[in-house]
Protein 1
Amino acid sequence: MLIVLLVIAVLIILFVPNLSKQQASINKQGDDALSKVIQTQTEMYYLDNNERPKDLDELVQGGYISKEQKDKAEKIGIKVE
C-alpha cells in the first residue's frame, strides 16, 4: 500500500509542472488568436465603413467583436491600429 502511494506521489510530482507549462502555452495561443480576430474585424469594419475604427468600443458597437473579446483584448494590451 505504501509503495502505491509512493508511486502516485512521484507521478504527481512529475506531471504537475508539465501541466502548468501547457496552460501557459494554451493561454498564449488564445491571446494570439484573439489578436488575429481583432485585426480581421478591424479590416471588416474598414471595408464596411471606409474608415478605421478609433478604438475597440467601435468594434463592439458595430457588432464586429463581443464585449468579452474587448475586455480580454484590453487586459492583454491589444489595441486597434
Note: The chain is about 80% helix and 0% strand.
Protein 2
Amino acid sequence: MTERIEFISKKPGVTEFGVPTEEEKTTEYSCWAELLNTPMREFRDPSTKVGIRKESPNFAIKFEIGIPIDSMWHVIWRGKEYGIDSIDPDYDKRNVTKIACKAVE
C-alpha cells in the first residue's frame, strides 16, 4: 500500500446562537491504500462544447480498519476530493476492501 488517503464527512455547522453555517469537513479516518486504477473519463458541456476530464480512482484498503466506512463520506487523495461510488469488501478472503470513487465538482 503506497498511497495515503483520508475519509472525511461533511456536516452543517452551527454557531453558538444556533445559526446554521457552511458545511464543516471532519476527518473520520486516514489509512494507507493501493491505487488499483484511475480511469479518465471525458465529458463535454453541451452549452459551451468544452471537454473536461474527470478522474475515477479505485483503491484497495485493509479489510478490517476498525470502523465502518459510510458511503456518504468523501475521500481526499493527493489534495483532491472524491465521492465514494461503491464499497466492495472481500468477504471471501477477508484481506482487502475495494473503494470506487469519482471526482467531486
Note: The chain has a mean pLDDT of 87.
